[in-house]
Each structure stands twice: as structure tokens, then as C-alpha cells.
Design goal:
Layout (H helix, E strand, L loop, with lengths): L1 H13 L4 E8 L10 E6 L6 E6 L3 E7 L5 E8 L7 E7 L5 E6 L5 E8 L4 E9 L5 E9 L2 E8 L4 E8 L2 E8 L5 E2 L5 E2 L1 H7 L2 E4 L7 H4 L3 E6 L2 E6 L5 E8 L5 E7 L9 E7 L2 E7 L3 E8 L5 E8 L11 E5 L5 E3 L2 H8 L3 E8 L4 E17 L9 E17 L14 H11 L3 E9 L2 E8 L4 E7 L8
Parallel strand pairs: 16-17
Antiparallel strand pairs: 1-32, 2-3, 3-4, 4-5, 6-7, 7-8, 8-9, 10-11, 11-12, 12-13, 14-15, 17-18, 18-19, 19-20, 21-22, 22-23, 23-24, 25-26, 25-29, 27-28, 28-29, 30-31, 31-32
Length: about 450
């Protein structure tokens, strides 16, 4: 408790030093707040940073170089408001952006190419995306390209829409030739798995909250490839690597360690060439790290319910929605409650270490006794389901050896605190840039766009 109080004091004392202003630009957004939007973006080839800022009438494009000095700006009327949202962007070989404006359902997309040097709009392309018998799963940026991923109904296929330089391609990712089965070795269809375990997009260069790590099917966008991992089967992690150049699909399987009791819950998480696997039941906890290329085991730890978890760096925490986290004293109590949740883990690299978060998320049933108007002493029982997170943290060094250093606050903690303390912050757009985070936002009081830098930890070098 003393350590927690000290950490709280340090966070408060260092809060003003947790961020610095990178840039401001005077700008007054018009009314109709529902049309306002800010998107920050990085051209990964040049490392230029862009801010795309729109209201109901105007689009403003700000371009900053890699040292974050403003080098260009362009304001012009925004497209028809029928294309309500700025869904994504891409960059051409000259570094000019193409913005993809869309209807809220993404069925109609307007691609507009902008030339900042000549202050002109070069080309406009409009598309109607054929989402018939399809469900949009996610949209994302990779390789200066905008992607939309959809699931094909009643078929073992995903559809990947590729938008670059105003051009649209449609790629079919066919999984019908691969075999899927559950933990009892019963055959499943790919579509059956996605119906129960929908795909969760993981941000590979950002901190991901635990609820994303507890999802059974995860999608990682990595340079020139996608990685889809499935953990519906507690005996293995099934992974599919999708080449974004050839669109070929390769399968890899990573067996999971066996528990003494067959009944168990499990999940995995991919991070920088490693597969981290987590498996539990009421009697034990298993944790393994495997090399993605070779599937060789790098680390394997088994913990019985009667033992203390040797690799935890924090207490075992129980967090109920709207309440302060409570400490759980024993491994057995932790596992007893964890088996009622969706289990998983996340991995995040800070400048000093690798932070792992293990646990579960979901709803736990609680029973309350309420007074009865009938005069009964016992009263009536009220059943309620409370959103619950159960977790602990573990800190490793870059060589995947345990370290005893304390976990410092993360940039995302400082960003959250800054937003809570500053009501003028509107339209926040957060992006990872180099080894820190940029919070771009509209300052509603000062009438300006602002960018602030946030880093993980307490060290300040500005």
C-alpha cells in the first residue's frame, strides 16, 4: 500500500513533466460538432507527420517534418457531408496524401488525392463497396495503405479491400483448404469459429488493454504481412500469416502445455517474433514463450495453486466496474475466480522493459440480499452481473529475463490523466511516433490545434 501511495504521489508530482507541447496552430472549427474530426498520421517512408482536421465545411491539412516543424498547410472545402467520416488515408511515392471519406457504414467511399505543393486536388474516385453477405471486421493503415477487412457470410473466406493512391483492389483470403478443430478434436468450419470468437485487431506498436488480449481471435498488422491467431482450441495456437504482397496464406501451429487437469482455459499473444501462451484451471497456471519462426520453447513456467506466482511484479488484483481494485492474497483464490472469466494476456515494450499483463475479463455474478416487504427475515435475492477484471503484471528485460524493477506509469496513463484534467481537449487523436506518443487535439478554449508528446516512465529529456 505504501508503494502504491508513493507511486500516486510521483505521478501527481511528475504529471507536468510527463508531456511537452510539440506544436500549435490557430484554427477555429465551425459549429455542427458532429462533423468535426481530427486524424493524425505518419508517412512511414519520410516520417512526416500529418494532421487532417475537418468540420462541416472545411478540411485543413497540416504537414510537419520528422523534427515536427510545420512545413506545409492547406485548407479547402471538405467533400459532400454525405461522406460523413474520414475513414482512412494513404500516401503516394511523392508523399502526398489520399484521404478516404466514407458513409458511416463504409458502403460508399470517396477517395480524394491532395497535392500540398500546388495546393490542388489531383483526383477524386468514388467506390461502392460490395458488402453484400459480408460483415466489416476492421479498418487499418499499414505500409502507407488503407485496408478494410470483411468476413464473407456462409463461406470460409475473408475479403481484404486495399486502397492506395485512389485505387481499390479486392483480395479474397480463402481458408477453406485449412483444417480446424476444437479441444475435443471435433472438426469446425472457419466461419463457425469467427461467429463465436470474432476477430480483434491488436495495435502492434501501442499499449493494448487486457480486454483485447482476452479475445480468442486476434489480428496483427505487421510490415508487409498480417498475422491471424486463433485460440479457440486449448491444445494449440493456430496462426495464419498473410503476405500483403502476394496474399498467400501460411499456417503455423504452436502446441500448448498440458495441465494436470484436462479442463482448462487458454490464450496467446504475439509480440515481436514471439508467441506468449497462457493456460489456467483452478489447480495450476502455465506460461510459455515460444519463438514464432521455429516454435522452440524459450521459457516455460508452471505454478500450482498452493504456490506463489514467481514471475509476478504486482499484487493479484480484482477490479470491479466503478470500484477501486482489491488485492487477492493467494494464487488459489485468484485461479478460483479467474476460471469464470475470459482469460488472456498482453505484451508491451517500454523503453526499459517488457510489460506483461495476465488475467481475465468478463462479467461475474454477484448475489445481493434485499429487504422484503413481506416481513421475511431472509429477504429476496437479487442477481447482478458486474464487469470484472482480474489481473497481475510481470516485468521482463529485453532478453526475456525477469527483472525486479518497479513498473513506472505508461504514456497512456499520462494521456488519460491529461484529458481528465483539461476539459478544453476535444477530438483527441493518439498516435505512436518513434519511441513516444503524440496526442493531437483541438483546444476548444484557445481555438487551436495542438500536439503534445507523452513518454513511458518518469525520465524526462526535453
Amino acid at each position: 500500500m505504501k508503494k502504491f501511495i508513493l507511486l500516486f504521489i510521483l505521478i501527481q508530482g511528475h504529471f507536468l513533466f510527463s508531456q511537452t507541447v510539440l506544436a500549435t496552430f490557430p484554427l477555429e472549427l465551425k459549429k455542427s460538432k458532429e462533423y468535426r474530426q481530427i486524424v493524425n498520421a505518419e508517412n512511414i517512408d519520410t516520417h512526416d507527420v500529418f494532421a487532417f482536421i475537418s468540420d462541416k465545411e472545411t478540411l485543413t491539412i497540416l504537414k510537419y517534418n520528422s523534427a515536427l516543424f510545420l512545413t506545409n498547410q492547406y485548407s479547402l472545402p471538405r467533400p459532400d457531408i454525405a461522406y460523413r467520416q474520414l475513414a482512412g488515408y494513404s500516401f503516394d511515392d511523392e508523399g502526398n496524401p489520399t484521404l478516404y471519406w466514407s458513409t458511416t457504414d463504409l458502403n460508399k467511399v470517396l477517395a480524394v488525392q491532395y497535392n500540398l505543393n500546388t495546393k490542388t486536388t489531383m483526383a477524386v474516385f468514388s467506390y461502392e463497396l460490395p458488402f453484400f453477405n459480408q460483415t466489416v471486421i476492421t479498418q487499418f493503415q499499414e505500409n502507407n495503405t488503407f485496408y478494410i477487412l470483411a468476413e464473407k457470410h456462409f463461406e470460409q473466406k475473408l475479403i481484404l479491400y486495399v486502397l492506395k493512391n485512389g485505387k481499390k483492389e479486392e483480395k479474397t483470403l480463402d481458408f477453406s483448404s485449412f483444417k480446424f478443430q476444437n479441444s475435443k478434436k471435433q472438426a469446425l468450419a472457419f466461419s463457425q469459429i469467427l461467429e463465436v470468437c470474432p476477430i480483434q485487431k491488436i495495435e502492434t506498436n501501442k499499449f493494448n488493454p487486457l480486454f483485447k488480449g482476452t479475445q480468442k481471435t486476434k489480428l496483427y498488422a505487421i510490415k508487409n504481412r498480417l498475422l491471424l491467431t486463433l485460440d479457440h482450441n486449448d491444445n494449440e495456437t493456430q496462426a495464419f500469416e498473410i503476405d500483403l504482397i502476394t496474399f498467400e496464406i501460411q499456417e503455423k501451429n504452436f502446441p500448448k502445455a498440458s495441465t494436470k487437469n484436462y479442463v482448462s482455459l487458454s490464450n496467446s499473444y504475439y509480440h515481436e517474433g514471439k508467441i506468449y501462451q497462457f493456460k489456467i484451471n483452478a489447480e495450476e497456471l502455465l506460461f510459455e514463450i515460444k519463438d514464432y519462426k521455429t516454435a522452440d520453447t524459450i521459457k516455460s513456467i508452471a505454478v500450482a495453486q498452493t504456490e506463489t506466482i514467481p514471475f509476478k511484479s504486482s499484487p493479484l488484483w480484482l477490479q470491479l466496474a466503478g470500484q477501486k481494485a482489491k488485492e487477492i492474497k493467494s494464487t488459489s483464490n485468484f485461479l478460483d475466480q479467474l476460471v469464470y472469466l475470459e482469460v488472456g494476456l498482453t505484451v508491451y515494450k517500454t523503453p526499459k522493459a517488457i510489460l506483461l499483463t495476465f488475467g481475465g475479463t468478463g462479467n461475474i455474478q454477484f448475489t445481493d440480499v434485499i429487504n422484503s416487504f413481506t416481513g421475511n427475515d431472509i429477504g429476496d435475492l437479487l442477481y447482478r452481473y458486474v464487469p470484472t477484471t482480474l489481473y497481475f503484471e510481470s516485468i521482463y528485460d529485453k532478453k526475456l529475463d525477469r527483472t525486479k524493477q518497479d513498473q513506472e506509469p505508461l504514456a497512456i496513463d499520462f494521456i488519460s490523466g491529461f484529458q481528465q484534467e483539461h476539459s478544453e481537449v476535444t477530438l483527441p487523436s493518439i498516435m505512436r511516433y518513434k519511441n513516444y506518443y503524440i496526442l493531437g487535439y483541438y483546444d476548444a478554449y484557445a481555438k487551436q490545434y495542438a500536439m503534445r508528446k507523452f513518454i513511458d516512465g518518469f525520465e524526462r529529456n526535453f
